[in-house]
Amino acid sequence: MNQWTTADDHKRVLMRRRIDFMLRLLFLLCTSIGIVALAVLIVSIVVDGFRYIRPELFLNYPSRRAAQAGMKSAIVGSIYMLLMMAPISFVFGVGAAIYLEEYAKKNRATRFIQLNISTLAGVPSIVYGILGLTIFVRFFALERSLISGTLTMTLLVLPVIIVSAQEAIKAVPKIRRDASFALGADKWQTVSRAVLPSAMPGILTGVILAMSRAIGETAPLVMIGALTYISFLPSSLKDSFSVMPIQIFNWISRPQEEFHSLAAAGIMVLLALLLLMNFSAILLRNKFQKHI
Amino acid sequence: MEALIEINELNLYYGEVRALRNVTLGIPERSITAFIGPSGCGKSTLLRTLNRMNDMIPGTRIDGSIKIAGTDIYSNQVDVETLRKRVGMVFQQPNPFPKSIYDNVAYGPRLHGIRDRKKLDEIVEASLRSAVLWNEVQHHLKRSAFGLSGGQQQRLCIARALAVEPDILLMDEATSALDPISTLKIEELTQELKDRYTIVMVTHNMQQAARVSQRTAFFLNGELIECAETQKLFANPSNPRTEDYISGRFG
Lengths: 292, 251
Prior knowledge:
The complex is a heterodimer of chains A (292) and B (251).
Chain A: H1 7-49, H2 55-59, H3 72-103, H4 108-120, H5 125-139, H6 146-170, H7 174-182, H8 187-216, H9 219-224, H10 244-252, H11 257-290
Helix pairs in contact in A: 1-11, 3-6, 3-8, 3-10, 4-6, 5-6, 6-8, 7-8, 8-11, 10-11
Chain B: E1 3-14, E2 17-28, E3 32-36, H1 43-49, E4 60-68, E5 71-72, H2 80-86, E6 87-90, H3 101-111, H4 117-130, H5 134-137, H6 150-162, E7 168-172, H7 180-193, E8 198-202, H8 206-212, E9 215-220, E10 223-229, H9 230-235, H10 240-246
Parallel strand pairs in B: 3-8, 3-9, 6-7, 7-8
Antiparallel strand pairs in B: 1-2, 1-4, 4-5, 9-10
Helix pairs in contact in B: 3-4, 3-6, 4-6, 6-7
């Protein structure tokens, strides 16, 4: 049996290996495009804006003179918005997800709601701006205030949070629910004690990623009228406010070169915050997974 | 024979499919009754009617009656939560919660309102002892249940079921995902439990039914073909279809 492999077999294998190798290169190229783009972006921003990363950027209010301009009110505005948006959207988003996954009957009405939520997750953010303008600013007469902005952004992130929380809840194995029911648990006991603890890492990841998206959103806040020149910190919900992307947008649209560099510095701060949030998402996920 | 569980003329439908046909069966107290039969014969379905786990499958309908200690468990005087507290269940796949060993066993008692730490400690120890797991885990009750072997996890699930002090324990192919040694341990455990609990087990393994049970019921296509003392059913079945099955001619 010295002929149990033939030259033909060998040739075919070599050919397949060559294809394998070329595809590997192709996939590597696909990956690099994204990474290279990000690297170029970061390098050009850092080159541009690094000299404006200085205490004044964080401590000063906006100014007509680039040398004195800072984004204190915008940073604080973004953080206030984040701190209010996170709990509100968590409660409503996870509540809706629990209802849809655990309580709602799987009938036509539920499927219709589901379809709408998935669609809402893809609606352009400017549309939410118009919605917020109509409902919060005008109808509820909340004016162009921090609370209007927060609620508008909450609407924007809710569909994303609902969908990701649903996925996390769906991923909890049925046998774990059965174990709980078989011990005499009712629905809420099962959801709160057996399902949610398992789903929490996924839910939190979804919430934080949605928050990162909201922190970088500009269009809806332009629509409801976040201001760019705010020389005070909001002290009540009805105060006017600014946020980082709005401030950056404003700086970029000015003719003076120095403001473009300031905008680059602002982008660096924003990116750093996003990185921090994504990092905390990973930390939270790991912390919860340890219990499993 | 006084039966603790009396199943009378029970029919069960999943939508249009009739999964159980006119099943009438008595299950005696403090002993082991085994349900055997080929896949899809309705034995697991019947087991799940005893703690009403089938209620959760949409489109399930039953007629006929099931009485436990004289009470119709499908009447609206019976809360399904209370029923399931009295009728515990162990599943085919070990399904501990992603919690500590202690919290797994304490899950049921906590559901039913026991908060007192000392009382919970006692229940956890007693249940783990009953499930012959105490000696292996007593020093690391705080560790995750997922660190246990498959067989230990299944005994933990038994301890968890025992912690709510049921009268009846349903075992749905509880050893089919386990290795032979773990299976043997669970079988030995059932022998200790049968003096205190009424055990109903579904098994694919006829030798297991013969080894551990006092009575065996044979099902085919949703019908109860024969139910008798285990020794008699295996040695001298009265129905030819039972004989065909246990002698390996089909199934």
